Amino acid sequence: MDAPAFDGTAPRRNRRKVSRKNYDENAMDDLIEKQLGGNSKKKYRTKQDLEKETETEALIALSVGFPIDELLEEEIRAGVVRELGGKEQNDYIVVRNHIVARWRSNVGIWLLKDQIRETVSSDFEHLISAAYDFLLFNGYINFGVSPLFAPYIPEEGTEGSVIVVGAGLAGLAAARQLLSFGFKVLVVEGRSRPGGRVYTQKMGDKDRFAAVELGGSVITGLHANPLGVLARQLSIPLHKVRDNCPLYNSEGALVDKVADSNVEFGFNKLLDKVTEVREMMEGAAKKISLGEVLETLRVLYGVAKDSEERKLFDWHLANLEYANAGCLSNLSAAYWDQDDPYEMGGDHCFLAGGNWRLINALAEGVPIIYGKSVDTIKYGDGGVEVISGSQIFQADMILCTVPLGVLKKRSIKFEPELPRRKQAAIDRLGFGLLNKVAMLFPSVFWGDELDTFGCLNESSINRGEFFLFYAYYTVSGGPALVALVAGEAAQRFECTEPSVLLHRVLKKLRGIYGPKGVVVPDPIQTVCTRWGSDPLSYGSYSHVRVGSSGVDYDILAESVSNRLFFAGEATTRQHPATMHGAYLSGLREASQILHVANYFRTNPKKPVQRYSGVNMTVLEDLFKRPDIATGKLSFVFNPLTEDLKSFGLVRVFFDNFEDDPTNRLQLYSILSREQANKIQELDESSNESKLSCLMNTLGLKLMGANSVLDTGGALISVIANARRGRSRTHVVAGQCIIP
Fold it and tell me: What does pTM read for this prediction?
C-alpha cells in the first residue's frame, strides 16, 4: 500500500531511504524533450531514430501505467482495435504511447488530435482517433488545472446535468473533467471550504503564515502520479522527503543505530513470514488479523525479546498502523497489503506552500455550493434529487464522493436504499483514524536538516502517541512541527483535552532537546485534529479489515441504476488511502458518467420512468387543495413564490365524468402563473372558452397523468415539498438557481 493519503511518507515496512536533493517535477519536461530528440515534428528520421523514439515513448507510457506490449482492460472494453493480438494492436500501442509521451512532454498545453496527425502517418488515422479519444475521455491526457485549457472547455453544458456531492479531491477532479466533457455540474459541499480531508491550516499571521497539513499531506510516488502533473501545471516545486529520520527513546536519547537496524530487519522478516503463513492457511487467513499473526510470529522467532527492543518493535507497529489508519487487531492478515502491486514508484514529496494550492486551483471555476450537508439522495430512471436541509437539487445523474465513514454512519439516506451488495461492502471495509497536533514555534529549534524524526513510547498501548514528527519548515514558510498519533492512541486522542495533549507532546520534545542544551519554547499556536468525530468524515482513510478484501473497493465503486455513481479513495482497489487514488477515482467516474450519457443519447427509445419519489398519489393530493379552481380547470403552484414566471400545473376535467369520481377523464399541462391569470380572467366564460384559451391562445398541450409525471416530476416534487411546509428551494445542477 502507498503511504496514506491522509498524511505521510512513512512506508508500511520501514523508513524510506531517499536523498536530500529537492525534486523539481518541471525537470520532467527537459528529460522527456531530451529523450525524444528535442524535435517531435522532425520529418526525416532514420529507422534507428524511430526505434529509439518508440522505445522511449513506451517507457514513458509504462511510467504512466500502460503495459509495454498489451492493452489495458479498459482499452479492450472500449474496443480500440478490431482484433486483439495482431498487427493492428501493435500499431495502436505505438500510437497510444506516442500520444501519451507527447502530452507528458508539456502537460501545460491542450494536446489536439491535429498535432498527432503531424507526426503520425495518415495510414493510421483510425488508430489516432481511437487512441486519442480513449486517452482524452479516460483522463490520461488534457486533465488538470492548466490555464491554457480554458479555450477548450465548453461554455455551456449540453451532455446533461450532474450533481457532485463533496468537494474533496475526488469530487473536484470529477467536476472539472465533467465540465470539460460538456456537462452542467453543481458541487454540493458540507464544509465551508473545498478539499475535504485534504486541509492546509495557515498558522500564524495573515501576512506571514506557515502552511501545515492537518489532513492529506504527501504526494506518494511521482511516477504516473496525477498530482505531480498538477504541480507541474502550476509551476509548484516539490520537496523530496529526506532520508534522515532519527529515532529517540522514551528518555530522549538517540536510539543505537545497530539496535534500530536489527529490530527493523526482524520486523520486515516477520512481514515476509506473514505472507508465507497466509498462503499456507489459504481461506482461513481471511478470518484473522494481521496483529494476531505478527505477535504469534514474534514470539515464535524470538524477535524483540527485551524491553528496549520491544519499544523499537512497537514503533514499527505504530508506523504500520499509521500507514493503514487502523489498529493491527482490525487489519486483515490476508489482504491488508492487497494494493502493493499497484503502488506508484518514485519519490515521496511535500508540495511547497501546502496542498491548498492544488485544491484552490482545482476548485477555481467549478460551481460549488458550500455549507450544504446532504440529508437524502433520491435516484431513479427519471433523474436524481438531492435534499440538503431546506433545499432540493436536481439533475440527470449524481456522483457521491463522501468518505467511507459517512457511508458507514448512514448519515445520508438513499431512496431507494443502496443494493445489499454495496451496503455489505461498506460495512466490511475498515475506516480508521490518524490524528495530529500541529504546532507553530518562534524558531526552528530542531534544525533545518530534518523532515522527520521518531519517538519511542514506554508501553505498547501508547505506541502510536506522538511516535512520528513531521518538520514542515522547508516547505511551509514557518517553523512548524506536526506530531502524529496512530492506532489506539488516535482513538483516545479524540476525547482528551487539547491542553493535556499539548503538555504531553512538549514533554516529549523537551525530553529530546533539553539534554542537548536546546530550549524548546511554548508554541505560538497549536491545532489538534478530531477527524474521528468530524461528522463530514468520521475518520481518516480506509483499510482492508478482517473479513473484507480488495473486492469490496470494487463493489463500492459500482454505479447504481446508471444514475448514482461513487468516487473517493475508498472506491479504488489499486490506490486506496492515497490522495492520488481519490483524484484518479474522480477521473474514472467522470469517464463512466460520459459513457452512460452517450448510451442514453444513442438509445432514445428506451422508456423513461417517472421521477423517483413522485407518483399518482402525490399528484392527486396536490389537486385536492387547488390554488385556483374555475369551472373544470384546477391550478396548483409553488406557495413559496409569487413570481409570474414560475411554473405550476393545471388539471382539466372533460364531459361529465366528474359526476363519477371513479370513471373520469382528466388531463394535465404545465403553465406559468401569468398564463393561469389569463385563463382566470375568463371566469364568467364557459369551460369551452377557457379550454380554447389554454390550447389555442396559449398553445399549451394537454397530457395524461403518466406523461405529466414523467415530464413534470421535478416540478411536482418541488410543489409537494413546499406544501408540506418544508420551505425547500429548487436548484437545478449547472444553473445554480438560488434565491
Answer: 0.80
- What is the per-residue pLDDT for 731? 54
Helix axes 579-602, 169-181, angle to 10 degrees: 30
Which regions in the chain score pLDDT beneath 70? Answer: 1-45, 604-614, 655-664, 725-739
Please tell me the predicted confidence (pLDDT) of residue 732.
55
Residue 240: partners with Cβ closer than 8 Å, 6 or more residues away: 18, 19, 20, 21, 22, 23, 347, 348, 349
Contact 487, 318 (CB under 8 A): yes
Cell 495573515 belongs to residue: 206
CB atoms within 10 A of CB 627: 18
In sequence order, the 6+-apart residues with CB closer than 8 A to the CB of 613 are 378, 380, 385, 415, 717
Task: Please give the grid coordinates belonging to residue 577.
Answer: 488511502
Closest to 378 measured CA to CA, from 704, 710, 714: 714
Rounded CA-CA distance 594/729 in Å is 28
* CA nearest to 238, candidates 222, 259, 260: 222
d(CA 482, CA 463): 17
Q: CA–CA distance from 592 to each of 138, 314, 560 (Å)? A: 8, 44, 12
Cα 28 to Cα 33: distance, rounded to the nearest angstrom: 8
- According to DSSP, the β-strands at 348-351 and 383-388 are unpaired
* pLDDT tens column, 25-68: 444 444 444 444 444 444 456 778 788 889 999 999 998 889 98
Among candidate residues 186, 194, 96, 94, the one with its CA nearest the CA of residue 141: 96
- With beta carbons less than 8 A apart as the criterion, state whether 628 and 691 touch: no
Measure Cα distances from 80 to 21, 132, 405, 600, 661 in Å: 42, 10, 38, 21, 59
In this prediction, residue 725 carries a pLDDT of: 63
Residue 162, classed as helix, strand or coil, is strand
Q: How many CB atoms lie within 10 A of CB 30?
A: 12
Q: Which candidate, 634, 705, 640, 636, places its Cα nearest to that of 667?
A: 705
Query: Using CA atoms, how far apart are residues 457 and 255, in angstroms rounded to an integer?
Result: 12
Q: Calculate Rg over the CA atoms of the chain.
A: 30
- Of 373, 457, 364, residue with least CA distance to 411: 373
DSSP string covering 471-534: E-HHHHSS-EEEEEEEHHHHHHHTTS-HHHHHHHHHHHHHHHHGGGT---PPPSEEEE--TTT-
The whole-number pLDDT of residue 7 equals: 40
